[in-house]
Amino acid sequence: MEYVEIEVRAKSVDLAVEAAMKELEVADRDELEVHVITEPVKGFLGMGGEDAVVRVKRRPARKRRGRGRSKSEDSPQSRNKNDKNRQQDRSKGGKNGSKRQDKQPQKGKSGGKHVRTESTVSDERPTLSLDEQADVAREFLEGLVEAYGLEGSVSTSLDDDVIIVDVEGTQTEAMVGVRGTVRSAIHELTRTVLQRYSKETARIRLDIAGYAERRRKALSIYAEQLIEQLMDEGGEIMLEPMSPADRKVIHDAAAEHDNVTSYSEGEPPRRYVVLSVTGDDSSEEE
Question: Is residue 126 classed as helix, strand or coil in its secondary structure?
């Protein structure tokens, strides 16, 4: 008999088993062998969770063995007689003797064969509008500010197909981190939350306590100083690895000068900008 084995993914083990029962057309859960591959993991504030994964197959049909024996078979006289007969059979050693023969199970073409298939629960996430996605992002960040125990406000706006989110308040500086590392992590968490609730998500531009604007101005001043040095000394200047947003600030500053070009090299997260003098009126932007 061919036993079909499937893997099912769902929010919980029970939901995964129910989906497997429908897939295998089984009405009783006891007819299935269930092996939990991955337990479900709850996310933080409604995001970052993991589904349960189970491997399921039908139980093989069990053959009942007759256990009824007459009292005469259990009597001492009967046992002694049987022992005597077995000893005589061993002494004969004939073809029909009690020479032990271990019967190996015969494997047919499909006997014991496991066919593994995979089944997943259908994606029931809706496609939210930009306004609805902005509301989801705002509610998540408001809950995050409250979880931090800080005083602050969250506002959202739309710029074409980009959701702009501002987290304001003097205490929210704690959500920025060294060189914006915490802000970058919160930005990724917010994107993950949107992906949890909507099939298609918009781009997000997140600023906390005005850090992004301050960072942009500081990088612009830094880039202008490097460009002046480059124009005096020539050659090239290789900057330290930066985020895509920071690299764009450097490229924008270089684009303001006709005889200076900029380009990016390296692989994330070690991607960096190189400034160089062109000697002509061409310039490049990333």
Answer: coil
